[in-house]
Amino acid sequence: MSANLESLLWLTVVGILWGGTNPFIKKGAKGMERVEGSNIITRFFKEIYFLLTNWRYMVPFILNQSGSVVYFLTLQNTEMSLAVPISNSLTFVFTAISGWFVGEGKPNSRMLTGMFLVLSGISLCLFDKTVNIVSDY
């Protein structure tokens, strides 16, 4: 197996689906802290009901879970040593970007530095795999 462009594209989609939906899931769950119940079990089921009937939570949650399906399917053709760091790292980048759009705060210099370092790390992983592929021939 190698790092092909199609796998990288799908891993980027996974990062977008996972990271891009995180702030929306957080925003959609607002109000759950006001759910009350007579005991812990009743409260648990009322919280589940609150989430399942809340489209602002369920739509991004379903999109987020579809990212897991895409990830699972992509693993069939991609090395784990590439899939895990790329998809998980990009999740943080896209969470920061979508959080900015949702109004969680403008990216500051530390956040931008972190994004740069994440993208640099992904580039190093890809470079390592590319060099290994070329040296095998």
From TrEMBL:
<feature type="transmembrane region" description="Helical">
    <location>
        <begin position="82"/>
        <end position="103"/>
    </location>
</feature>
<dbReference type="InterPro" id="IPR037185">
    <property type="entry name" value="EmrE-like"/>
</dbReference>
<comment type="similarity">
    <text>Belongs to the TMEM234 family.</text>
</comment>
<feature type="transmembrane region" description="Helical">
    <location>
        <begin position="7"/>
        <end position="25"/>
    </location>
</feature>
<keyword id="KW-0472">Membrane</keyword>
<feature type="transmembrane region" description="Helical">
    <location>
        <begin position="55"/>
        <end position="75"/>
    </location>
</feature>
<dbReference type="InterPro" id="IPR018908">
    <property type="entry name" value="TMEM234"/>
</dbReference>
<dbReference type="GO" id="GO:0016020">
    <property type="term" value="C:membrane"/>
</dbReference>
<keyword id="KW-1133">Transmembrane helix</keyword>
<protein>
    <submittedName>
        <fullName>Transmembrane protein 234 homolog</fullName>
    </submittedName>
</protein>
<feature type="transmembrane region" description="Helical">
    <location>
        <begin position="109"/>
        <end position="127"/>
    </location>
</feature>
<dbReference type="Pfam" id="PF10639">
    <property type="entry name" value="TMEM234"/>
</dbReference>
<keyword id="KW-0812">Transmembrane</keyword>
